[in-house]
Each structure stands twice: as structure tokens, then as C-alpha cells.
Write a structure and sequence with these properties.
Layout lengths: L10 E5 L3 H13 L4 E5 L3 H12 L9 E4 L10 E4 L15 H18 L4 E4 L4 H11 L6 E3 L3 H15 L6 E2 L18 E2 L2 E2 H7 L6 H22 L4 H15 L4 E8 L10 E9 L2 E5 L6 H21 L2
Parallel strand pairs: 1-2, 1-4, 2-3, 4-5, 5-6
Antiparallel strand pairs: 7-8, 8-9, 10-11, 11-12
Helix pairs in contact: 1-2, 1-8, 3-4, 5-7
Length: 318
């Protein structure tokens, strides 16, 4: 397909037409988030097939011009979604993917940044914190780089808590901080339910929650993705919905607070890494960092997570 010479409305480029990239493109289309969407993949036939499949059902969705293309076709994209790389296999940790996917990202970046120097980049591929940092080191403006980080983990946490309390997840405000991986943690001191501190809420309904139970919940959240991979081989629906939400916030400049991965700048004693903390997301990407008050244990956990990510960065030599 020829390069789109004139951009009409909002435009998103999705790099990678595998399960994750294709599902992201499908979700963005049925939600009508953008008016133009281009899929780019090294397997051009796969990208064309995915675009064609979605396009054939466009009569049932908001109008979106979706097509397969190459890097020049991404010119003018407001957002570039990066979902290239090798997927995680059953039993494989996110960090084991690091070296291969960093090499792939480094091959992609010169091509995409040539045509999209001012786009906001949303990094989806794993290990997301390492790959987000790779974009930072490449020289893209820091505020223009957003890793999905623990956004999905936070959604999983809210869902689990809501199920246990038998209430809507919309009434639960809870987040997962740190690495999108083994050293992630829940800052329970910041968790609220129905506007109350979580522990106060439990007392208000004459129930108790032990630290052992909270640890069980954290473990369930941390292992949720691996459980899906074990059962069906990959995860792509929930992460696509997460990316959709981020893209909506950028294109509508909604300035929503999200727990996403970006450069920490040393906050809480972290090192030179990308990990997940709350940020305000709008048209320019990350528009504001929010410094929340962590208790001493939580402060130590964010440092632990930072060190784990830094170790991988140093080993790879990013």
C-alpha cells in the first residue's frame, strides 16, 4: 500500500503484527480510538492479513482507516506502539527475553525514529522495563516514552481485591509498583476502597485481612500472566486493553494518573532505570510525576526492584 501523503485526524502505528500487536490493532479499531492505523511487521504478508481481517469488519465499528505498511507509512503517527520481539515461552522469565529483544529493538529504532521523531512511544514488548530504558538510551525524549509496565498488574490486583470483597473493581484503588516482574510489589499503605484506607474498609465491614493473605494476593498478581501463558501459550487480550487505555489518554489529553514505566530520575533512591510509578499521562506523554509517601518497607522494596532491573541493564550493556 502506498504511503499516506496526508494525515487525516489521529494516527497510530503498531510495530509488530503478532498476537499482541494484532490484538492491539483490533482493540484500537473497535474502540475507535484513532482515525488511521498502520500495522508494520517484518512478515509483510502477516501484517496485511491482520489489517485485511480487521478492515473487513469495519462496517460494525467506528470508521478507522487500517492498513499494513512499512516504516515510511508511519510518518505523522501521534503514537507508535512497539510490540516487536520474541514472546515469552511457558516457564520462561521476562528477564530471560532481555538480550534477544533488546537487539531487535535496536534494529527497529533507527528506522522508526527517522519517520516518527516526535511521536509518543508506547512500549509493550517484554521485558518492558528493559526495553523502555533502551528507548531512553537511544535518545528519544524521556517524556515521550511510556512502558506499559505494571498497568496490567494493577488492573489484575484491583480485580482480585474486588472479587474478595464482592464489590466492583471501580471502587478499588490499588497499584503495583516497580518492575513488571519478580520484584514488583503492592504499596498496601496507599490502597483504598470506597474512598477509605483498605484496612479501615475491612474493619468497617467487620472483616480482617492478614499480611499472609496480602502476600498471597501479591503472588497471585505476579503469577497471573504466567498462568495465562501456561494455559493458552500467550497473553494478548488484557494487555491490548491496557494499551488502548494509554492511547486514549494520549490522544484525548485526559491527563489520567497511570502506573506506567518510565525513567525514574533517582526518585526513592532508585538508580538509572525505568520502572513503574504513578504518572500523569496526556498529549505529550508523561506530563507529571507524582511522588507518593511510601512507608519504610515499601521504600526498600522499590530500591530492591530498581537494583534488579539495573543488574540486567548492566549485564546487557545497554
Amino acid at each position: 500500500m502506498s504511503i499516506k501523503d496526508e494525515k487525516k485526524g489521529t494516527k497510530i502505528a503498531v510495530l509488530g503484527a503478532g498476537n499482541v500487536g494484532a490484538t492491539i490493532a483490533y482493540t484500537l479499531t473497535i474502540k475507535g480510538v484513532c482515525s488511521e492505523l498502520v500495522l508494520v511487521d517484518i512478515d509483510k504478508a502477516k501484517a496485511e492479513g491482520e489489517a485485511m481481517d480487521i478492515r473487513q469488519g469495519i462496517n460494525f465499528c467506528p470508521s478507522v482507516d487500517i492498513y499494513a505498511g512499512d516504516y515510511p507509512d508511519t510518518k505523522g503517527a501521534d503514537i507508535v506502539v512497539i510490540s516487536v520481539g520474541v514472546g515469552r515461552k511457558p516457564g520462561q522469565s521476562r528477564m530471560e527475553l532481555a538480550k534477544t529483544n533488546v537487539d531487535i529493538i535496536n534494529q527497529v529504532l533507527p528506522e522508526i525514529t527517522k519517520h516518527c521523531p516526535d511521536s509518543v512511544y508506547v512500549v509493550v514488548s517484554n521485558p518492558v522495563d528493559i526495553l523502555t530504558y533502551t528507548l531512553v538510551r537511544y535518545g528519544i525524549s524521556r517524556n515521550k516514552i511510556i512502558g506499559t509496565g505494571t498497568m496490567l498488574d494493577s488492573a489484575r490486583l484491583r480485580s482480585i481485591l474486588a472479587d474478595r470483597l464482592e464489590i466492583s473493581a471501580e471502587s478499588v484503588h490499588a497499584n503495583v509498583f516497580g518492575e513488571h516482574g519478580d520484584t514488583s510489589f503492592v504499596p498496601w499503605s496507599l490502597t483504598t476502597v470506597a474512598g477509605m484506607n483498605m484496612f479501615e474498609y475491612f474493619r468497617s465491614i467487620n472483616r480482617q485481612i492478614s499480611m499472609d493473605k496480602l502476600k498471597e494476593i501479591e503472588t497471585a498478581v505476579r503469577q497471573a500472566g504466567a498462568a495465562v501463558i501456561e494455559a493458552k501459550g500467550a497473553t494478548y487480550y488484557a494487555i491490548a486493553l491496557s494499551v488502548n487505555k494509554i492511547c486514549e489518554c494520549i490522544l484525548r489529553d485526559s491527563r489520567s494518573v497511570m502506573t506506567v514505566s518510565t525513567l525514574t530520575d533517582g526518585i526513592y533512591g532508585t538508580e538509572d532505570v525505568c520502572l513503574s510509578l504513578p504518572y500523569v499521562i496526556g498529549a505529550d506523554g508523561v506530563s507529571q510525576r507524582i511522588k507518593v509517601n511510601l512507608n519504610p518497607d515499601e521504600d526498600e522494596m522499590i530500591r530492591k526492584s530498581s537494583k534488579a532491573i539495573k543488574k540486567v541493564i548492566d549485564e546487557i550493556g545497554i
